[in-house]
Amino acid sequence: MQKTLDDNLAALAGSPLADTAACVGSLAAAAIELHRLIQNGGAEGGAEATGIGNSGGDLQKALDVAADRLFVEAARRSPVSFYGSEEQDEAVPMAPAGTLALAIDPLDGSSNIETNVSIGTIFSILPAGGEHAGADTVFRQPGRRQLAAGFFVYGPQLLLVLSFGQGTATYAFRPATGRFEVLIEAMAIPETAKEFAVNASNQRHWEAPMRRYIDDCLAGKDGPRGRDFNMRWVASAVADAYRIFLRGGVYLYPGDTRKGYSSGRIRLTYEANPIAFLAENAGGAASDGLNPILDIVPEGLHQRTPVVFGSRDEVLEVARYAADPDNLGERFSAFERPLAPL
Ligand SMILES: O=P(O)(O)OC[C@H]1O[C@](O)(COP(=O)(O)O)[C@@H](O)[C@@H]1O
Ligand SMILES: [Mg+2]
Ligand SMILES: [Mg+2]
Protein backbone atom coordinates (compact mmCIF):
# COMPACT_ATOMS: atom_id res chain seq x y z
CA MET A 1 0.00 0.00 0.00
CA GLN A 2 1.51 3.33 -1.14
CA LYS A 3 2.22 5.60 1.83
CA THR A 4 0.31 8.91 1.77
CA LEU A 5 0.65 12.47 3.04
CA ASP A 6 -2.34 11.83 5.32
CA ASP A 7 -0.51 8.88 6.89
CA ASN A 8 2.58 10.98 7.56
CA LEU A 9 0.57 13.93 8.93
CA ALA A 10 -1.46 11.61 11.16
CA ALA A 11 1.80 10.23 12.56
CA LEU A 12 2.53 13.73 13.92
CA ALA A 13 -0.70 13.90 15.94
CA GLY A 14 0.05 14.48 19.63
CA SER A 15 3.59 15.65 18.80
CA PRO A 16 4.97 19.22 19.03
CA LEU A 17 4.34 19.38 15.25
CA ALA A 18 0.64 18.44 15.49
CA ASP A 19 -0.58 21.99 14.71
CA THR A 20 1.93 22.34 11.87
CA ALA A 21 0.76 19.02 10.40
CA ALA A 22 -2.86 20.18 10.61
CA CYS A 23 -1.96 23.37 8.76
CA VAL A 24 -0.15 21.41 6.01
CA GLY A 25 -3.24 19.21 5.64
CA SER A 26 -5.45 22.28 5.08
CA LEU A 27 -3.02 23.76 2.56
CA ALA A 28 -2.96 20.45 0.65
CA ALA A 29 -6.77 20.43 0.40
CA ALA A 30 -6.73 24.02 -0.91
CA ALA A 31 -4.00 23.11 -3.45
CA ILE A 32 -6.17 20.29 -4.85
CA GLU A 33 -9.01 22.81 -5.31
CA LEU A 34 -6.68 25.35 -6.95
CA HIS A 35 -5.29 22.70 -9.32
CA ARG A 36 -8.85 21.80 -10.32
CA LEU A 37 -9.59 25.50 -10.94
CA ILE A 38 -6.44 25.80 -13.11
CA GLN A 39 -7.38 22.65 -15.07
CA ASN A 40 -10.82 24.14 -15.68
CA GLY A 41 -9.37 27.22 -17.30
CA GLY A 42 -8.40 29.21 -14.22
CA ALA A 43 -10.16 32.02 -12.40
CA GLU A 44 -12.81 34.25 -13.91
CA GLY A 45 -10.79 36.66 -16.02
CA GLY A 46 -7.99 34.03 -16.10
CA ALA A 47 -4.65 35.66 -16.63
CA GLU A 48 -6.04 39.10 -17.09
CA ALA A 49 -4.45 41.62 -14.81
CA THR A 50 -6.84 42.97 -12.23
CA GLY A 51 -5.26 46.37 -12.65
CA ILE A 52 -4.38 46.24 -8.96
CA GLY A 53 -0.72 46.11 -7.96
CA ASN A 54 0.46 43.94 -5.06
CA SER A 55 3.09 44.86 -2.48
CA GLY A 56 5.88 43.93 -4.88
CA GLY A 57 4.48 46.22 -7.56
CA ASP A 58 3.40 43.27 -9.73
CA LEU A 59 -0.03 43.61 -11.32
CA GLN A 60 -2.21 40.98 -9.65
CA LYS A 61 -3.77 38.48 -12.02
CA ALA A 62 -7.23 37.06 -11.34
CA LEU A 63 -5.67 33.69 -10.53
CA ASP A 64 -3.29 35.31 -7.99
CA VAL A 65 -6.35 36.68 -6.18
CA ALA A 66 -8.36 33.45 -6.44
CA ALA A 67 -5.41 31.44 -5.10
CA ASP A 68 -4.96 33.86 -2.20
CA ARG A 69 -8.65 33.54 -1.33
CA LEU A 70 -8.40 29.71 -1.21
CA PHE A 71 -5.36 29.81 1.07
CA VAL A 72 -6.89 32.42 3.38
CA GLU A 73 -9.76 29.98 3.92
CA ALA A 74 -7.32 27.11 4.49
CA ALA A 75 -5.42 29.20 7.06
CA ARG A 76 -8.68 30.04 8.84
CA ARG A 77 -9.28 26.26 9.17
CA SER A 78 -5.83 25.91 10.80
CA PRO A 79 -4.23 27.03 14.12
CA VAL A 80 -2.82 30.14 12.39
CA SER A 81 -2.69 33.51 14.17
CA PHE A 82 -1.16 35.51 11.28
CA TYR A 83 -1.35 35.08 7.50
CA GLY A 84 1.31 36.85 5.43
CA SER A 85 0.81 36.72 1.68
CA GLU A 86 2.45 38.15 -1.44
CA GLU A 87 -1.04 39.28 -2.44
CA GLN A 88 -1.82 41.15 0.82
CA ASP A 89 0.05 44.30 1.85
CA GLU A 90 -0.13 43.62 5.59
CA ALA A 91 -0.08 40.50 7.79
CA VAL A 92 -3.70 39.35 8.27
CA PRO A 93 -4.63 38.62 11.90
CA MET A 94 -6.51 35.32 12.33
CA ALA A 95 -7.17 33.06 15.36
CA PRO A 96 -5.77 34.89 18.43
CA ALA A 97 -5.00 31.51 20.03
CA GLY A 98 -3.28 30.29 16.86
CA THR A 99 0.22 28.90 17.45
CA LEU A 100 1.48 29.40 13.90
CA ALA A 101 2.30 32.12 11.38
CA LEU A 102 1.92 31.28 7.69
CA ALA A 103 3.91 33.15 5.02
CA ILE A 104 2.75 32.26 1.51
CA ASP A 105 3.18 32.94 -2.18
CA PRO A 106 -0.27 31.76 -3.31
CA LEU A 107 0.63 31.67 -7.01
CA ASP A 108 4.27 31.40 -8.04
CA GLY A 109 5.23 31.92 -11.66
CA SER A 110 2.39 34.35 -12.41
CA SER A 111 4.00 35.38 -15.69
CA ASN A 112 3.38 31.82 -16.90
CA ILE A 113 -0.34 31.59 -16.04
CA GLU A 114 -1.57 32.04 -19.61
CA THR A 115 1.25 29.97 -21.16
CA ASN A 116 0.20 26.62 -19.62
CA VAL A 117 3.65 26.19 -18.06
CA SER A 118 3.99 24.79 -14.51
CA ILE A 119 3.12 27.30 -11.79
CA GLY A 120 2.98 26.79 -8.02
CA THR A 121 2.37 27.82 -4.41
CA ILE A 122 5.18 28.30 -1.86
CA PHE A 123 4.64 28.32 1.93
CA SER A 124 6.57 28.75 5.16
CA ILE A 125 5.21 27.86 8.62
CA LEU A 126 6.74 29.64 11.64
CA PRO A 127 5.97 29.52 15.37
CA ALA A 128 3.88 32.45 16.61
CA GLY A 129 4.09 33.68 20.18
CA GLY A 130 6.54 35.05 22.72
CA GLU A 131 8.55 37.89 21.22
CA HIS A 132 7.05 37.02 17.83
CA ALA A 133 3.37 37.40 18.69
CA GLY A 134 2.45 40.65 16.95
CA ALA A 135 1.63 41.49 13.32
CA ASP A 136 4.85 43.50 13.03
CA THR A 137 7.14 40.94 14.67
CA VAL A 138 5.78 37.51 13.70
CA PHE A 139 7.41 37.46 10.23
CA ARG A 140 10.73 38.87 11.45
CA GLN A 141 12.08 35.43 12.27
CA PRO A 142 15.10 33.91 10.47
CA GLY A 143 14.27 30.97 8.21
CA ARG A 144 16.05 28.57 10.57
CA ARG A 145 13.03 28.92 12.88
CA GLN A 146 10.65 27.42 10.27
CA LEU A 147 8.64 24.46 11.58
CA ALA A 148 7.83 23.33 8.06
CA ALA A 149 7.99 24.57 4.48
CA GLY A 150 6.86 23.38 1.09
CA PHE A 151 5.81 24.13 -2.44
CA PHE A 152 3.10 22.77 -4.71
CA VAL A 153 3.71 22.45 -8.45
CA TYR A 154 0.64 22.69 -10.69
CA GLY A 155 2.07 20.97 -13.71
CA PRO A 156 1.38 17.76 -15.65
CA GLN A 157 1.15 16.31 -12.13
CA LEU A 158 0.19 18.09 -8.93
CA LEU A 159 3.23 17.69 -6.67
CA LEU A 160 4.05 18.71 -3.10
CA VAL A 161 7.65 19.09 -1.95
CA LEU A 162 7.63 19.22 1.86
CA SER A 163 9.94 19.32 4.89
CA PHE A 164 9.42 19.40 8.65
CA GLY A 165 13.16 19.88 9.16
CA GLN A 166 14.06 16.19 9.01
CA GLY A 167 14.70 15.65 5.30
CA THR A 168 12.64 16.69 2.26
CA ALA A 169 10.03 14.47 0.57
CA THR A 170 7.94 14.73 -2.60
CA TYR A 171 4.31 13.69 -2.86
CA ALA A 172 2.24 13.27 -6.03
CA PHE A 173 -1.54 13.78 -6.09
CA ARG A 174 -3.38 10.75 -7.49
CA PRO A 175 -6.88 11.68 -8.78
CA ALA A 176 -7.81 7.97 -8.65
CA THR A 177 -7.43 7.89 -4.85
CA GLY A 178 -7.88 11.59 -4.21
CA ARG A 179 -4.71 11.50 -2.10
CA PHE A 180 -1.13 12.76 -2.14
CA GLU A 181 1.06 9.64 -2.29
CA VAL A 182 4.79 9.49 -1.44
CA LEU A 183 6.77 9.81 -4.68
CA ILE A 184 10.27 10.39 -3.22
CA GLU A 185 10.75 9.70 0.50
CA ALA A 186 14.08 11.51 0.92
CA MET A 187 15.25 13.95 -1.75
CA ALA A 188 19.02 14.29 -2.19
CA ILE A 189 20.23 17.18 -4.35
CA PRO A 190 23.34 16.09 -6.33
CA GLU A 191 26.32 18.04 -4.92
CA THR A 192 27.69 19.12 -8.28
CA ALA A 193 25.77 21.04 -10.93
CA LYS A 194 25.76 20.71 -14.70
CA GLU A 195 23.06 23.34 -15.23
CA PHE A 196 22.44 26.90 -14.13
CA ALA A 197 19.11 28.73 -14.15
CA VAL A 198 19.17 32.51 -14.49
CA ASN A 199 17.32 35.18 -16.49
CA ALA A 200 20.28 36.00 -18.75
CA SER A 201 18.46 38.96 -20.29
CA ASN A 202 19.45 40.88 -17.15
CA GLN A 203 23.18 40.27 -17.67
CA ARG A 204 24.04 43.91 -18.51
CA HIS A 205 22.58 44.94 -15.15
CA TRP A 206 24.59 42.43 -13.06
CA GLU A 207 27.58 43.20 -10.82
CA ALA A 208 31.00 42.05 -12.11
CA PRO A 209 31.35 38.85 -9.99
CA MET A 210 27.97 37.59 -11.18
CA ARG A 211 28.79 38.32 -14.81
CA ARG A 212 32.17 36.59 -14.39
CA TYR A 213 30.55 33.53 -12.79
CA ILE A 214 28.11 33.07 -15.70
CA ASP A 215 30.80 33.85 -18.31
CA ASP A 216 33.00 31.13 -16.81
CA CYS A 217 30.13 28.64 -16.92
CA LEU A 218 29.44 29.61 -20.56
CA ALA A 219 33.15 29.19 -21.39
CA GLY A 220 32.65 25.50 -20.73
CA LYS A 221 35.39 22.85 -20.62
CA ASP A 222 38.00 25.09 -22.26
CA GLY A 223 37.31 27.79 -19.66
CA PRO A 224 38.26 28.26 -15.96
CA ARG A 225 35.55 25.80 -14.83
CA GLY A 226 36.96 23.03 -17.06
CA ARG A 227 33.53 21.56 -17.84
CA ASP A 228 30.40 22.33 -19.87
CA PHE A 229 27.22 23.75 -18.34
CA ASN A 230 23.68 23.73 -19.73
CA MET A 231 21.11 26.44 -19.03
CA ARG A 232 17.41 26.34 -18.15
CA TRP A 233 14.99 29.13 -17.06
CA VAL A 234 11.29 28.36 -16.65
CA ALA A 235 10.52 31.66 -14.85
CA SER A 236 8.48 29.69 -12.29
CA ALA A 237 10.76 29.29 -9.27
CA VAL A 238 8.89 26.13 -8.18
CA ALA A 239 9.50 24.42 -11.53
CA ASP A 240 13.19 25.40 -11.64
CA ALA A 241 13.52 24.31 -7.99
CA TYR A 242 11.94 20.89 -8.50
CA ARG A 243 14.19 20.15 -11.50
CA ILE A 244 17.26 21.21 -9.50
CA PHE A 245 16.21 19.14 -6.47
CA LEU A 246 15.95 16.10 -8.76
CA ARG A 247 19.05 16.37 -10.94
CA GLY A 248 21.20 19.11 -9.44
CA GLY A 249 21.92 22.58 -10.71
CA VAL A 250 21.83 26.12 -9.40
CA TYR A 251 19.14 28.84 -9.52
CA LEU A 252 20.32 32.44 -9.38
CA TYR A 253 18.32 35.65 -9.02
CA PRO A 254 20.95 38.25 -8.07
CA GLY A 255 20.52 41.87 -7.22
CA ASP A 256 21.14 44.14 -10.20
CA THR A 257 21.31 47.80 -11.19
CA ARG A 258 17.70 48.08 -12.44
CA LYS A 259 15.48 50.40 -10.41
CA GLY A 260 13.95 48.40 -7.55
CA TYR A 261 16.11 45.32 -8.22
CA SER A 262 19.12 45.99 -5.96
CA SER A 263 18.00 42.91 -3.98
CA GLY A 264 16.68 41.03 -6.99
CA ARG A 265 13.08 39.89 -7.34
CA ILE A 266 12.61 36.99 -4.93
CA ARG A 267 10.89 37.62 -1.56
CA LEU A 268 12.65 36.34 1.58
CA THR A 269 9.79 35.23 3.86
CA TYR A 270 7.52 33.37 1.39
CA GLU A 271 9.86 32.37 -1.45
CA ALA A 272 13.58 32.23 -0.50
CA ASN A 273 13.18 30.98 3.11
CA PRO A 274 10.91 28.01 2.32
CA ILE A 275 12.96 26.98 -0.75
CA ALA A 276 16.19 27.30 1.28
CA PHE A 277 14.72 25.14 4.08
CA LEU A 278 13.75 22.45 1.55
CA ALA A 279 17.13 22.66 -0.19
CA GLU A 280 19.22 22.39 2.99
CA ASN A 281 17.09 19.44 4.20
CA ALA A 282 17.80 17.72 0.87
CA GLY A 283 21.59 18.16 1.20
CA GLY A 284 21.75 21.31 -0.93
CA ALA A 285 22.40 24.93 0.02
CA ALA A 286 20.93 28.42 -0.40
CA SER A 287 22.58 31.82 -0.06
CA ASP A 288 22.10 35.50 -0.79
CA GLY A 289 25.22 35.16 -2.92
CA LEU A 290 27.52 35.13 0.08
CA ASN A 291 25.73 34.03 3.26
CA PRO A 292 23.07 31.42 4.12
CA ILE A 293 19.52 32.59 3.42
CA LEU A 294 18.23 30.87 6.59
CA ASP A 295 20.41 33.08 8.84
CA ILE A 296 18.98 36.36 7.52
CA VAL A 297 16.70 38.19 10.00
CA PRO A 298 13.82 39.61 7.89
CA GLU A 299 12.97 43.30 8.30
CA GLY A 300 9.56 42.97 6.73
CA LEU A 301 7.04 40.62 5.12
CA HIS A 302 7.77 41.61 1.50
CA GLN A 303 11.55 42.13 1.75
CA ARG A 304 13.44 40.92 -1.34
CA THR A 305 16.77 39.10 -1.25
CA PRO A 306 19.33 38.04 -3.86
CA VAL A 307 19.15 34.25 -3.96
CA VAL A 308 21.32 31.35 -5.10
CA PHE A 309 20.11 27.81 -4.33
CA GLY A 310 20.69 24.23 -5.38
CA SER A 311 23.73 21.93 -5.50
CA ARG A 312 25.93 22.65 -2.49
CA ASP A 313 29.26 22.83 -4.33
CA GLU A 314 27.86 25.27 -6.86
CA VAL A 315 26.32 27.58 -4.25
CA LEU A 316 29.74 27.62 -2.59
CA GLU A 317 31.38 28.37 -5.95
CA VAL A 318 29.11 31.37 -6.52
CA ALA A 319 30.00 32.62 -3.03
CA ARG A 320 33.70 32.35 -3.89
CA TYR A 321 33.16 34.62 -6.94
CA ALA A 322 31.15 37.09 -4.83
CA ALA A 323 33.70 37.09 -2.00
CA ASP A 324 36.55 37.81 -4.40
CA PRO A 325 35.16 40.46 -6.76
CA ASP A 326 38.60 41.35 -8.16
CA ASN A 327 39.35 37.69 -8.90
CA LEU A 328 42.48 37.90 -6.74
CA GLY A 329 41.87 34.43 -5.37
CA GLU A 330 42.67 35.81 -1.91
CA ARG A 331 39.56 36.65 0.09
CA PHE A 332 37.05 34.16 1.54
CA SER A 333 33.27 34.02 1.67
CA ALA A 334 31.36 33.46 4.88
CA PHE A 335 30.66 30.00 3.44
CA GLU A 336 34.26 29.02 3.68
CA ARG A 337 34.21 29.57 7.41
CA PRO A 338 32.15 26.53 8.37
CA LEU A 339 28.50 27.45 8.87
CA ALA A 340 26.04 26.28 11.45
CA PRO A 341 25.52 22.55 10.74
CA LEU A 342 22.89 22.01 8.08
O1 LIG B 1 10.36 37.28 -14.90
P1 LIG B 1 11.73 37.01 -14.37
O2 LIG B 1 12.50 38.25 -14.06
O3 LIG B 1 12.48 36.06 -15.22
O4 LIG B 1 11.53 36.33 -12.93
C1 LIG B 1 10.98 35.05 -12.80
C2 LIG B 1 10.94 34.73 -11.33
O5 LIG B 1 9.98 35.56 -10.70
C3 LIG B 1 8.92 34.78 -10.16
O6 LIG B 1 7.91 34.64 -11.09
C4 LIG B 1 8.43 35.53 -8.93
O7 LIG B 1 7.34 34.90 -8.36
P2 LIG B 1 5.80 35.38 -8.56
O8 LIG B 1 5.36 34.87 -9.87
O9 LIG B 1 5.15 34.71 -7.40
O10 LIG B 1 5.76 36.86 -8.44
C5 LIG B 1 9.58 33.44 -9.87
O11 LIG B 1 8.68 32.37 -9.85
C6 LIG B 1 10.52 33.29 -11.07
O12 LIG B 1 11.61 32.46 -10.80
MG1 LIG C 1 6.75 33.67 -6.49
MG1 LIG D 1 3.27 34.88 -6.58
TrEMBL record:
<feature type="binding site">
    <location>
        <position position="199"/>
    </location>
    <ligand>
        <name>substrate</name>
    </ligand>
</feature>
<feature type="domain" description="Fructose-1-6-bisphosphatase class I N-terminal">
    <location>
        <begin position="47"/>
        <end position="181"/>
    </location>
</feature>
<keyword id="KW-0119">Carbohydrate metabolism</keyword>
<dbReference type="InterPro" id="IPR028343">
    <property type="entry name" value="FBPtase"/>
</dbReference>
<comment type="pathway">
    <text>Carbohydrate biosynthesis.</text>
</comment>
<dbReference type="GO" id="GO:0042132">
    <property type="term" value="F:fructose 1,6-bisphosphate 1-phosphatase activity"/>
</dbReference>
<feature type="binding site">
    <location>
        <position position="105"/>
    </location>
    <ligand>
        <name>Mg(2+) 1</name>
    </ligand>
</feature>
<feature type="binding site">
    <location>
        <position position="105"/>
    </location>
    <ligand>
        <name>Mg(2+) 2</name>
    </ligand>
</feature>
<keyword id="KW-0378">Hydrolase</keyword>
<feature type="binding site">
    <location>
        <position position="86"/>
    </location>
    <ligand>
        <name>Mg(2+) 1</name>
    </ligand>
</feature>
<feature type="binding site">
    <location>
        <position position="108"/>
    </location>
    <ligand>
        <name>Mg(2+) 2</name>
    </ligand>
</feature>
<feature type="binding site">
    <location>
        <position position="107"/>
    </location>
    <ligand>
        <name>Mg(2+) 1</name>
    </ligand>
</feature>
<feature type="binding site">
    <location>
        <begin position="251"/>
        <end position="253"/>
    </location>
    <ligand>
        <name>substrate</name>
    </ligand>
</feature>
<keyword id="KW-0963">Cytoplasm</keyword>
<keyword id="KW-0460">Magnesium</keyword>
<feature type="domain" description="Fructose-1-6-bisphosphatase class 1 C-terminal">
    <location>
        <begin position="189"/>
        <end position="321"/>
    </location>
</feature>
<dbReference type="InterPro" id="IPR000146">
    <property type="entry name" value="FBPase_class-1"/>
</dbReference>
<comment type="similarity">
    <text>Belongs to the FBPase class 1 family.</text>
</comment>
<keyword id="KW-0479">Metal-binding</keyword>
<feature type="binding site">
    <location>
        <begin position="108"/>
        <end position="111"/>
    </location>
    <ligand>
        <name>substrate</name>
    </ligand>
</feature>
<dbReference type="Pfam" id="PF00316">
    <property type="entry name" value="FBPase"/>
</dbReference>
<comment type="subunit">
    <text>Homotetramer.</text>
</comment>
<protein>
    <recommendedName>
        <fullName>Fructose-1,6-bisphosphatase class 1</fullName>
        <ecNumber>3.1.3.11</ecNumber>
    </recommendedName>
</protein>
<dbReference type="Pfam" id="PF18913">
    <property type="entry name" value="FBPase_C"/>
</dbReference>
<dbReference type="InterPro" id="IPR044015">
    <property type="entry name" value="FBPase_C_dom"/>
</dbReference>
<dbReference type="InterPro" id="IPR033391">
    <property type="entry name" value="FBPase_N"/>
</dbReference>
<feature type="binding site">
    <location>
        <position position="271"/>
    </location>
    <ligand>
        <name>Mg(2+) 2</name>
    </ligand>
</feature>
